[in-house]
Amino acid sequence: MSDRMLELAAQQPGYLGIESFRSPDGKGVTISYWEDLNAITAWKQNPEHQSAQELGKIQWYQNYSIEIARIESGYSFDRP
User: Fold this and answer.
1) Is residue 74 situated within a structural domain?
2) What GO molecular function annotations does the UniProt record carry, in alphabetical order (predicted)?
């Protein structure tokens, strides 16, 4: 996600954060976290975000997928 899209997403109501991972061959996963489905829908309908998606389809991506999931529980481990 571009710096502009990161900045724009962070300004959206319900935005909770983002993580992005890329392999050496350029394949990647970006996970954005949102408060609820309404916040996701509002982000999807943001005109600047829609323009960036269209540009991505034309210039950068041969394919991509979007999945929406609810996190019911989570935990982590950090070695001291």
Assistant:
1) no
2) monooxygenase activity
With respect to residue 67, please indicate whether it lies within any of the assigned structural domains.
Answer: no
Q: What angle do CA 64, 39, 66 make, to 5 degrees?
A: 10
Nearest to 33 by CA among 46, 21, 17: 17
69 Cβ neighbours under 8 A, 6+ residues apart? none
pLDDT at res. 26: 81
The CATH number assigned to the domain holding 44 equals 3.30.70.100
The 10s digit of each residue's pLDDT in 6-42 is 999 999 999 999 999 999 998 889 999 999 999 999 9
Q: Checking DSSP bridges between strand 15-22 and strand 28-34, what pairing results, if any?
A: antiparallel
